[in-house]
C-alpha cells in the first residue's frame, strides 16, 4: 500500500502517518524528519535545508526528489510506505509518478487531512518535539507525562525553530501557493481521499482506516 499524506503544516500528517505505519507495517517516510536529522548531524544537506526551513520556505525540488526516489526504492519499502511531507510541489509529484511508472508502480492513495488555517496556528504553538527521537506532543492535546521530557526516550522537548508564529504564517502561505495545487492533481488522477482533520486524533485515524481497510 503506497500512501501520500497531504495537508497544511500542522494538519496532523505526521501524527496520522506514524499510526498508519504501525498498523499496516510499512515505513513512515517524512522528508521534514529526514531534513531535521541531517541538520542535527551537521551534514551538507542539513546545512542547505536549514536556510530554507528556518524561513518557512520549501527546500528546492532538486534537493528532495532524488532523496525520496532513492528511499522508496529500498528493501523495506517493497510492500508500501506512507510518505509524509512529500510531494509538496507539482514537479515533485510528477517526478515521483515518473520514477514509479518506470518500475511499473504507482501511488494508491493521496489522503488530504483538511484543517482550516485558524486551527493551525494554535496547534503549532502547542506542539513540542523531542530533540532526540523526534516524537511529537501537544501541550493541551497530547501532553507528555512529565513536562518538557519525552515519554519514549527521556530527552528534552522543544518548540521547533519553524513553529514560531511568524514562520508558521509564511509556511501557510507557501502551502496555499505551492502545495494545495496537488489536491487537483490527485483528484484528476482519481486517488484523492479527503479526511476532516479537525476531529479528535482517534476519529481522524478511524476515518483513514475506513478508507484503507482493516
Ligand atoms: P515538515 O516537517 O513536513 O512540516 P509541515 O508540513 O510544515 O508539517 P508539520 O510537521 O509541521 O505538521 P504535521 O501535518 O506533520 O502535523 P503534526 O502531526 O506534527 O516540513 C518542515 C520543512 O521542511 C518545510 O517547511 C520545508 O522547508 C521542508 N520540507 C519538508 N519536505 C519538503 C519537500 N517535500 N519539499 C520541500 N521542502 C520540504 O501535528 C501538529 C500538532 O497538532 C502536534 O502538536 C499534534 O500533536 C497536534 N495534533 C495532530 N492531530 C491533532 C488533532 N486531530 N487534534 C488536535 N491536535 C492534533
Ligand atoms: Mg510533520
Describe this structure in words.
By secondary structure, the chain is an alpha/beta fold. The protein is built from 9 helices and 8 strands. The protein has helices at residues 13-24, 31-40, 44-53, 61-72, 90-102, 117-126, 165-179, 181-188, 201-212; strands at residues 2-6, 28-30, 81-84, 109-114, 127-130, 136-138, 157-158, 192-196. The strands form 2 sheets. It has a 5-stranded parallel β-sheet, with helices on both faces. The protein starts with a strand and ends with a helix. The mean pLDDT is 95. Magnesium ion binds at residues 13-14, 30, 32, 84. Residues 7, 9-15, 31-32, 35, 52-53, 57-59, 64, 85-86, 88, 92, 123, 126-127, 136, 138, 141-142, 162, 171, 197, 200-201, 204 line the site of BIS(adenosine)-5'-pentaphosphate.
